[in-house]
Structure formats: structure tokens, C-alpha cells
Records
---
Amino acid sequence: MSSEPVYQPVAPVEIPKAAAQGDIPSSVLTTAKGSGILAVGKLIETVGRFVLAFLLARMLGADQFGQYTIALATSALFASFGKFGMDSAVVRYLAMAAEKRDEAGVWGALQVTIGFAFGASLLCGLALFFLAGPIANAIYGEPQLVSLLQLGGLMVPLAVLNDMLIGASRGFKRMHFSVIAQDIAHLLVRLVLLGLLFITGMDPFWAVATYGAADLCSILILAYLLNGVFPWRRSLATARHDVRGILGFSVPLFLSEILKRFRGDIQTILLGALYTVSSVGVFTVANKINLTGRITSFSLMTSAEPAFAELHARSDKEQMGELYRVTSRWMFILNFPVVFVSVLFARPILSIFGESYVSGATALILLSLASLVNVSTGLGGTVIDMTGYTKLKLVNSVTQITLFVVTSVLFIPRWGVVGAASAAMVSSSIIQAARMAQVAYLFRISPYDRAFAKVAVCAGVTVGVGYITRWAFATDTAVLSAALHAVALIGLYMATTWQFALTPQDRAIVARMVARLYKLLDKRRMLAGGRLPAA
């Protein structure tokens, strides 16, 4: 057995003395660092996806781009069945075993989660390959999709293995691994291959193939990087397998994720069936705008997952409560400006897409308010997941989709797009409040403290100033005036929050992140200076 450590803590970062006030728990500091790395990666991924979609739409044309999109979406759907919730299980069980320096447990968790998911993905991939004909002809009515769907079936195991290795990197708290492999290398490989196809001849089959090639590249990079943390070359017999525990965790989680995945599709179907097809387009745009503000939420939740699993494994409720409060506060701090701007300037934002979309302004406001409730009630869902209460998660998911369907049927025929947004807001808000109450009951911890109250006061001041100045200067009548007003309000919010709401711990975390950024920039300047010719 290798003597290398299972988990190597991140080296501390030098910070200014003025910022060293307050004792920062390691779980909070690691989560802050990880969320910053993931936020950068998510931003790169979002911009990259937009650029790739733009290039492919221009090079393929509407029909072929539609075929490409359907093939990838169908492949992703089958891959979601193949993962079977193991991508979250690997995060939890690796984090717990690594915390105990349990190499046999780590090796067993890797074998069970990756082995089970890869085996299931092979079956799902074969199912898509052999069902490509019936799916293309009976469901989509496009015989040209057969070869693309077959290729998508062959890519399913690659997509699942890639996601499993990303989960393993997060379980080891190596958030930068996924950024390097998935957000940067994956994007670059696709751009290079699409550039070659542009020269040699573009068609949807090879465009889909570039995604599989990028997945393979990401897998190789992740496998190499993870080998430096936990070497792969070791006897299979040295592992200790908790098959029952892992399956007990992953099955309810898998069912919950399937319900979550289909919730958006059900929303589209109900809106189109109970109202008009054009309303679907308006609602989709409003919903996409609302989702752009979730980059920081995703980063915080993903980075906090292994920390919550570790703290629960060692029954450290005090630090778990501290992490819960800090992450909840920062999720509100970072997401409030985006939510408020979407509420205050819904009409000018939607007018960017065309005047026909302005009718969705009220829907965008309601969806943004639902997001505000989400960021105001903490990471209850993440705590429930990573502490093993996946059956409770499944109950919450079933309750949410039931509430959503019932309220949609009641609201959409009467109010259309606004009814769909109202249904989303009501169902989401009720479940978020329930999660917060469940965490309070199970662990006796709350996302709120005096620091959160101070942030809320700063947000309230910004809301008051925003509405008064919008009414006084009519800044919601044009995109440019709305943009300038939004920048001024965000500046006001940031200044008041920094001055009155941040704790010494918050300031120390910010100082550490800034110090790391300066250090990185200094290194790059030094490297650039070494390459530049002498004057």
C-alpha cells in the first residue's frame, strides 16, 4: 500500500496583519477558496458555451444545429440515468474517508461509486445506441438523427466517467482540478476541433464527436491530477467497501435529481398546453435571465459539500453551524445585487431580446423573488444531502414537484406566463423554508445571526434608494440609463455592506483572496517580464 497521504491540506496563505482579525475555521477558509475557484471556472464555462453555441449556430444553420442540440441533450439525459446519484455519493464518501485518513475507505468509495456508475452508463449508452432508430423516427420524426444518437450513446460512458472524476476531485477538495480539466481544457479542445472542422467541412455528426473527444481529454487530465493525490496503482483487495451505505445514499438522491431534471420540462409542457406556445418563448427567456445569477450559488454549494460531509462525520455541530451561517450570509451578499437589478429593471433587461419579450417583465420579477427566497434561506439542501438524509431530500423533491404541478394547473390558465412564474415561486419558496426548518430540527443550527441581519439592512437601504431614484429619474425607460443606475446601486450596496455589515472574519477571508490574486498577478508579470526582450 502506498504511504502517500490520502488528503493533503492546503498550505496557509500569507495575509496582511490588519486582515488577520478573527479566527477563521479551516472549513470556512477552504470553502471560500474553493467557491472562488469554481466561480471563475463557471464563468469561463458560461462564456465558452455561449461562444460555442454562437459559432455552431452560424456554421451549421438552424436545422443542423437543432440536430446537434437534440443529440447532445438526449445523450445527457441517458447519462443522468447512468450516474445513478453516484457523482454526489463520491463527494460525500471520499470527504468522510479522507477526513479520517482512511485509505481503505477512500479506495473502496472510489471503486464502488465509479465502478457502479461506469457499469450503469455502459448499459444506458448501449440502450441509446440500439434505440436510436425508434427515438429518431417515432419521437423526433427526424431520420437524420439516427447516426447522431448512436454516437451520443457511445459518448454516455465518457460523460459519466468525466462527471465521476470531477466528483472525486471535489471530494478531495481539489476544486481547481475540475476547472483545469472541464472548464478550460474541455473548452479549448472543442474550440480547436471545431476550427479544424470549419476548414475541412462542418457537419452535425463531427460537431457532436468533438464533445466526446473533449470529455476524453478531461478524463485523462483528471485521472493524472487525482493520481498525485491518491495513486491509482494499488491492489484492489486493499479497499473496504460500504456498498449498502453508498446505495442507500445514492438511490433517493438519484430519484430526486431525476424529478429536478424533469421539472423544467414539465413547466414548458404545462405552459404550452394550458396557455399558448408563444408564452413558452417569453417564459424561457425570463427564466434564462434569472438563472444567470446562480453562478455564485452553485460555486458555494459545490465547494461546501465536502466540508459539510467531513464535519458531520466527526460530529462537529459547532463548526457545521458556523459554516452554515457564513456560506448562507455570503450567498445572500453575492446574489442580492443580481436579484435586485432583475426586479428593478425587468422591462429594460427583457427589451434587449426584443419588444415581444417585455410582456414577461412580471414573470421575471416573480422568478427573481423566488431566487431571493432561495438565497435568503441558506444552504439547507446541501446540508441535508451531505449529512446523508437523502430520503428526506426525495420527500422534498416529490412535494415540490406536486406543489408545482398543482399550482401550475391553477395559475397558468388564468395568468399565463405570470401564472407559471407564480407557481415556480410558491413551490420553490415553500420547499426552501421547509429545508431550513428541517436543518434547524435535525442539527439545531440556523443560517441567521447578527451579521446576516446587518447585510439585510444594507440590502433594504439599497432597495429603498433604488425605487426612489428610479421613480424620480425614470431610469427604467431605456437600457443605458438602467445599466448606469444598476451600477450605481450595486456600488452603494457594496460600500455599505463593506463598511457596516462584514465581520472581521469576512474581511480576513476577502483579504486572503485579494492577497492570493495579487500574488498570482505578480507571478504572471514576472513570467511575462522574463519573456520580454530587454529595452
---
Amino acid sequence: MVPRTIAVTILAGVLLATGSVRTVYGQTTVAPQAVPATQATTTQDIVTQPAATTDVLTHATSTLNIVTQPTATQEIVTQPTTTPEVVTQPTATLTIVTQPTTTPDVVTQPTVTQPAEPPPAVLQQPPAPEPDPLLLGISYFRMGNYEEALDDLTKARIKDPWSAVAAYYLGATLKKMQQYSKALPHLMEAVTLQPVAKEAYPELAEVYSVLNRNDEALKALESAEREGIEPAQTAYVKGLVLVKKKKLLEAESSFERSMALDPQFTASANFQIASIYLSRGKLTEARDRFIAVAAKDAESAFGLMAKQQADALSRRLLVGRQFSALVGAEYQYDSNVILKPDSAPSAASIANQSDTALVVAARAEYAPTLQSAYSLKLQYGLYASMYQDLKNYDVLSQTFGITAGTTIARGSLSVPLSYNRTAVDGKDYLTAFGLAPLYAFTPAEGQQAQVTLRFQQKDFQATATLPDEDRDSTNTACGIAWYWFLGQQEKGSVTARYDIDREDAAGKNWSYLGNKIAANLLYPVGKGLKLSLGAEAYIQSYGNLNSSFNVQRKDTTMTVTAQALYALTRNVDAQLQYLFMKDNSNIDVYAFSKNIIGVGLYSRF
């Protein structure tokens, strides 16, 4: 069978040859034809398929289309032989495809506009995965950023509660932040979850030790020794625990082993060994160890504490240095000896309130050598002011004291007990008994802190004019002072101090609550010369209405001091000082101001 496209092409050629093709509005169509009846039976029917519509290639600018009806069959219908007529199929259209090779004319291909291809889809990068909180937390921990580490390691523990590594680092972070009770459960899980985080054993032991669970600390250290985890740190922590259990010889051995395993533990281990010697009364050996620590690492916390201990032991061990004394004499000008009120009308007639005085001060101390961890000092203090004109304001004050001390933890504790007796114009004025424990420690390199408590019982010897003016009282106080040392030799310092005290007096006019803030700078400006500047604010809020003035009294006393100290010799200093004091009170008779200028010499023995 002849293919359809070839058959259609042949038919188109026949039609063109017989002139039965014409062009209408740029289309080529088949004109109606007359078919003789005798030829009707010889004509081959041409049947087109419904969907076989083929575009005609253009010849010049014309398009040849023969349109056929879908499903319609073009056929020749015979009429009776007596009446030949042409039967046309007006609706039958046959689409003819002409090939360039079937016509001598040049056939041009139509311009076909291809639909634009859609742009390729933009390839988006998949979102970056969130960082692993465990890895991020470990990174922060190693950099010392414990607050950031805590957040991420907490997330890591929530994400994977069975991770011993996450438990270890979270516990170690809390330990660094001194949150020992919170650190403990995480470190315990770090050594119980599988696989065990063996690095947690020394950390767990330290936390147990801080919480005074020393037997459990030793068990954790035994596990660390068995696993070979951080041998030097393990030996050092074991020494600390053994000291707490009073096993001093075993502790000394552990400290020695930690130094041998890692030289980085030399300063801290030597300090601990020196403390053991001190507690056993081996003062010379203790001093030598402290000196070695201070010489090797002077700026560290251990170095600063070691220097203090070495100096104290050296004084105790020097023959003839069990006794020490300070004696000074100063010539002063006081602008307001009698505390004349600044603006009270009743004080208008008061004159001659200023005077000059010779002031003598002395302090003596005796410290017997004790072959133990404790120290003992016997003290005596004297203060006397002798005015040129205002003799009835001459003051003589004597203080007797005894101070016991010891070394505890990373600081020292002293407990002074004192008795004071003061006379004015040769008459007994005041007796006072006091107890003032003080704990001093080194919180960081180049710093020292002191925490104090104070109890004082005052008994004024003069009889009060009114019961409400009775000043016999009990004073209780607490305070903290912080020192920042300047320079390697600690020749200068900055000090800040805060105290709060409460005075409960027999007379209601003298009971108050006081708050005191003070700051001081001691700075070396040259060889042998130091300058000192100080400021203090003391606010006293009296708790009762003053019965004489019918108002609740409140005083604010400001004090500013300036001193210049010059070392004339090793043991003799010259001093020039200025003091300004102003009391602002809402009761005029208590408001005053004064200036003191003094120059003197002080000698140490």
C-alpha cells in the first residue's frame, strides 16, 4: 500500500497539472471538477483520517491547503449517463503537504517561533544544619566563657540525656561557676552513664571535697588513679582531701607526687606543704616553702599569700623580733576642738574653739613563738593630745589587747579582744570592751579582702543630765574591705570599704543605725615618698524622736584626708597630713565642721 503522504502528494500534483487548483486569499484550494460518468468507476477514493491535518509548506507567500472534513470520504458520485453534471463536495477539504522536491519553485520554510523554554529552577542551597550544642558548649568551656557554655551544654543534656560527655562538661562548667550542689548530679551521671566520661572523676572528687563529703571524694579519686586520669591533678586533689581528714603525712606525700608529675602544680603544692608544716609547728620549714613559692610566682594568688605568710614567720623566728613597737609625735592645728556648731544661734557667743596640740601615739606588740599553726599577740596602744590653751580637752586613751590567729582555708583568721580606757581633762570619760574577729583572704592575684565583725560595749563615766541623753550603749557592726595592690612590691594600694553598725543606747536620743563607705589610695610617687588620699561618708539615722528637739535626728558626716609619707631612714618616717570633717545634721547644734593640719615623725622598732 502506498503511504498516505506520498499518495496525497501525487494527487496534489495531478490537481496542479490539470489546473484545478486556485488561490483564494493566499490559500490554494481545489476548484469544482466535472467528472464523466464513464470514468466514475475508475476513480480511486481518497479517505483521510480525522486527525491527519497537515500544514502546507508555503510557496512564495501562498499556502496550499486542501481541507477535508474529518471522517468525510472524498468520492466521485455518478449521475445518470444522460445528465452529466459536476458534483462538488463543498465541505470536503484535503490538507496537502508539499515537499520541496515536488515543485520547481523555491519553497521557503515558515519561521516557527518556538515557545520560550521556562528558565531552569533556581537551585537553592539546603539550610545549614544547626550547630551541635555539645560541640559549641565544649568550645565555650575551653575558652572560659562559662555563661555561654552553660546554655549550650544544658541544651545538649536535654537533647541527649544519655550522653556522659554532655553530663561531664555541664558539671565541670557549674563547678567552675562555683555552683557545686548543681554540678554534683551531672558529674555523678558522667561516671555512671555508658560509656563513662573518665575525666569526670577528679572533678567529682573536688566537688565532694568542697561539700565536705570527703570519703566519697577519696573513692572518686581512687577510680581516677585506677583509670590513670590526670595523675597530677588527682594527686593534688587527694592531698587536699587528706588534709581535711587530718592525714597530714599522706597529704604531704600526695602534694609531692603532684609536683613530680606536673611542674605546673609546684607553686600550689608547695604552698599546701608549707601550710602542713605550719600546722605541725615546723616554722622554719614552713617559712622556707613560703619563700620559695613567693619567689617563683610572686603575682599569683598563692605567691601573694605565701609572701604574707613568709614575712609573718620571719618576724616570729627572728631572735629579738618577738617584740615590736611604733612611736610617733605630731604637732597639730585643730580649727574646732570643741565641735562648735556651724550655725546654731546658741553657739554664736562661743569663741576660741581652735587650738594647737602635741599628739603622741605609741603601739607595742609582743608575739611569742608558738610551735603550732596558731599565733598569739599581746598589744598595747596609747594616744594622747595635749592642747596649748584648751587644757580641759586634753585626751589620754589607752588600749590593751590580745589577738589569737590561725591559718584556715586560703586565708587567715584573727580574733582581737580589747579593753579601752579614755580620760578627758584627767577625768575618766569612757571605758569600752571590744571583740572584732577578722578573716583575710586573697580572692585574686594582686588583691586582698577582709571581712570583719565587731561587738563593743561602751560605758560613759559621766552621769547623763537627762535619762534620754544616757550614751551607755552596745555597738554591733560588720564590714568588708577590699585591697588592690599596685606594683610587684605592693608599695601602693587602692582600698574600698563598707561598714554597717547599730548602736543601742540606754538613752533613746543616741540609738542609731549607721552606714559607712570609705575609699583610700596609697601611691608611691618617688623614692621613699608616698601619697595617701582618702574619703569617707558616714550616715547615722537615729531611731527615735529627739526628746529635746522633737525631731528624728539624721547626721551625714563627710571626711576627707590627705597624707604625705616620706621615709627618712629604714625605720623613721616623716608625715604631713590634712583632715577636713563636716557633719551635716538636721539638728543645728550637732552640725559642725573642722580642719586639722599636722606634721610629725614616726619610728618603728
---
Amino acid sequence: MKSLRKSFTQKRTKNSQRTNWFAILAFILALGAMFASCELQGDNLIDNPIRIPVDNPTDDIIIPDGSISISSSVEMAKIGIDEDYPLNGAYHLTQNITLSNWTPIGNGTSPFTGKFDGNGKTISLNSINLGDNSANTFLGIFGYVKGASDSNKAEIKNMSISSALDATSTSTANGHSIGLAAGYLETAVIDKITLSGNLKFYSERTVFAGGAAGYITGSGTLVKNVNSTLNMTINPGSGGTAPVSGYDYIGGIVGRFNNGAGIENCHNKGNVIADNMNNTASGQVFAGGVTGGSTYAMNATYHGYVIDSSSTGNVTGKCKGMWTFAGGIAATIVGGTVNDKNATTRIERCFATGTVSVEGTNSGNPYIGGIVGYNYFGALVSQSYFNGTVIAAKSGDYTGGIAGYNSQTAAPGNSRIEDCWSAGTIKGFNNAGGIVGQNQVNTFVRRCYSTMIVQTTNNSNSGVGGITGLHSSTNADAVTSCVALNPSITAGGGNNVQRVTQNGTGVRSNNYALASLVPTTSGTYTERKGLTESDGADIPSNYLSGNKPTQTFYQSVLNWDFANVWKMGSNGYPKLKWQN
């Protein structure tokens, strides 16, 4: 019996030892599984992510706990409709999807307040369900997007949008804000979006249309890192409330910006056409390669900014109303003060190429510029350039290589164009300037040069010059330290043509031109050379290398900043520091 108990005891001991080792092994495996169920993201540990398999196993998408995965148009359509898909939810797209007859997510009463991460996937937007047009004012994948607070902004990011939209609104009650990502954006961010395809839209009411967003508003609201090859053809009308009545704003990235909203690092290669001519309603059109522009008003209120952005497509604006504004970057920017750049509506470190045109417009006063059509009430264009063609082809024009019109009425809200250059061809009707078409009261043009071919097809009645056309700013040093390097300046007629600025009441200082530059007109050209004269002084030959001024000329004579702003390019002309 003892031997049997001993044998049993020995076996039990061995079994217990084996059981302990199994327990230890199980614990280790469980611990490993726990860590495997966590993903390190930045400096934070996200517990219990969901791993969504996709076609390529190496591209599996990690969905953080609490997020809702979207893998089909059916699931996408549940957002804001199904209680399990709330408007304040966090969403991750896990598959490419196609949206047809799409009803936008969120409206003015119940906006989308959450976060949508496209995870690099593509949404193909084929058509929109306009439905009751009076209700569907805000159009896009998301209609109305508004974050809960500055610290809890709504987000739309990380995806491509391919558009085949071709829609006609028959609404007589309201206008529309339309953008592929969002119609309306407030206290929100659009980031890392790629746009392609075509966007066509017709409405007899006011339209705010942008490739990414139609209308953006509010300090901290931001559209950034958007790249677009989208071609836009918008036929807007007039009137309505979208969200306010007034002018039509059409832009390659954003329609209209307001109340401190920003546009950063956005690049448009597509064409923008804003054409009111074939609309039954008589509208007024603001068309821009990046944005239609800021809110237009006759005051110095700050509205926002466009920085580090570009447009390399063509921009066309046409309308039957009084005003057509067109610009390579923006149609108009308004508001600001010389005392605080951050309180100034501005375009900085931007460029545009291609053709900017209002040819075919019926408006009484087209404002057209390579960068901006109308720079107004203290706004600023800085460290930007245009290299392309500007076409007015209409009487009453304000046509410039950088800005069509530069104006303000009282300090400290002086509108400014600083450290800019232009190249290509400008074709005005009665007015043309290599930098500014009309440089009006209380403005500044500083440290700019132009190599544009400048011409007017009719006459020079409104002023023609290598730097500005009409010039009437009487501020001290209103146009200063600029140089006209234009190959030619020609006018179809009249006597109001000079090398640097029109010979008006405006103040000039320290301006130069190539000695070989002689304006031509079928009227009479009268030479007026000198540092403070409308022809500027001849560039001294000892500062020339061929027919190009040396860096010493720009630094020592014009006092340009080559430490922070300028550098010499390989072609012998100055470039901006940020240029490649």
C-alpha cells in the first residue's frame, strides 16, 4: 500500500510541476497577446484596435477603439441617419466606395461634428441627390460641417475624391455652397485630400463653389495639403442665401473664405471656369485658381489668408453683372492693417501660371490679375509671383501681372504688394501694368520687378506701365524700389504710357528701368526719366550683366533683402527664397 501511495504521490508531484509550467507558459502567451492587441501611435498607446483586412494583407487598416469603420456606400449613408452612426462619431474608411444620387451628410440644423479619416482610400462621387433644393443648400460628400469647439474641431482627411458631378439646381429659394469634401466648413479642418475628375454645376441662384469646400469660415477653420487636377465649370446665377446673398465665388480649392479661415499648402492643376453669361440670371463672378476669395466689403475687417499655395491651370471669369473679378490665386482679398500682418487678409508665398482671362465677359468693370483681381482695404500680397498670360479684352478693365486693382481709402489699412515678380504676357484693353493695373489711393508697391510683355489692344486711356498702369497713391514712397525689365510696352493708342508707372499724381521713388526699354503707342510717348519720375532712371551699365541687373544692384541700390526674401536664379533674375 505504501508503495502504491508513494507512486501516486510521485506522479501527482510530477503532474503538479508540469501543470505549473503550463500555467506559466499560458500567462506569457496571454501577456504577449495583450501587447499585440495594442498599437503604438505617436507617443500614445491605443487599446484594443480593430484590424480590418483588405485585399492586400500588407495594407491592413488599424481602426482605433471607438471608431466606426465604413466599407460601403450603404454604411456611409447611415451617418447621421442610423443611431449607431452619429454625426459626432469618428469614422475610418476601409474600402474604395462609389456614391451615386448622394444625399450630403449634415445640414445647417444638424451638422456633421465628427471626424472622418479616409485612410488613403478613394471616394468616387458620381451624382448628388438635390431633392428638395430649398433644403439641400450645402452640397458635397458632407453638406454642413461644424466642429463642437476650437479644441474639438470636425475633421475630413486622408483620402482621394474622384468626381463626375454634373448637376443642375432648379431652386428659386436659396443659393448653394458646393465642394467635393464639404459644402460648408466651420471650426473644422480638411487635410490631405486629392481631387480629380470634373465638377459641373448650374444654378440660377448665388453659388459658392470650391474643389474641396464651397464656403469656409471662422478662426482656426483650415483647408490644407490639398492637391487637385479637378476641372470645374460653374454656371452661377444671383440672389438667394447660401449662406448669404451676394456675389458668386468660384475657386479651385475653396469658394469663399471668411472670419479668419485659412488655406495652406494647396495646389491646383485643374482649370476653373466661372461663367454667368449663359445663365438666365445676371450675376457677378469672383473666380480664382485657388479660391474665389475673401468676403468682399468696404472695410478693413480681417477675413483670413492663403499661404504656400499655387495654381497652374487656367482661370476664366465671365458674367452679365457689373463686376467680374479673376485672379490666378484669388479673385479678391479684402481687409487688413500695416500694424499687424496676422490681422491682415493676405496671400503669401504663392504662385500661379497658365492663363487668367475675362475674355467674353459683359461686365462693366473687369478686375483681373495674375495673382489677385482686387487687393482692397488693407490686404497684402507678399513674396508671390505669376508667370503666364493675363487677358482682359474688355473696356473698363483693371489688368495687372500681380493685381488688377490695388486700393484703399485711409491708413493704417493701406493695401500692399511687396516682394513680387511677374513674367509672361499681359493683354489689357485700356489699362495694363506689369505688377498692378490700377494703383489707387493710399497703397504701396515695393520691391517688385516685371519681365512681362505689356500691351493694351485699344488705347492707354487708363494707364499703361511696366510696373503699374494708372498710379494715384500719394503716400510717401508709394511705388518704390521697383525695376521694369519688360521686353516691350505697347499701347493701341493714347498718350498715357510710360516705363514704370502712368504719369499721374502718384508718388514714386528709387525706381529703375532698362535703358533699352522705350514704350510705343500710336499716340505720343513723352520721356520722363528720373528716380521719382514715371519712367524711372536707367539702370547704370556697371550694374548690368548683359541686359540683366546684378545681385549687387538689387542689394545696394534697391535695398532688397537677399538674406531672408530673395536669391538669384540660374536664369540671371531674382527668385524668392522659397522657390526651388
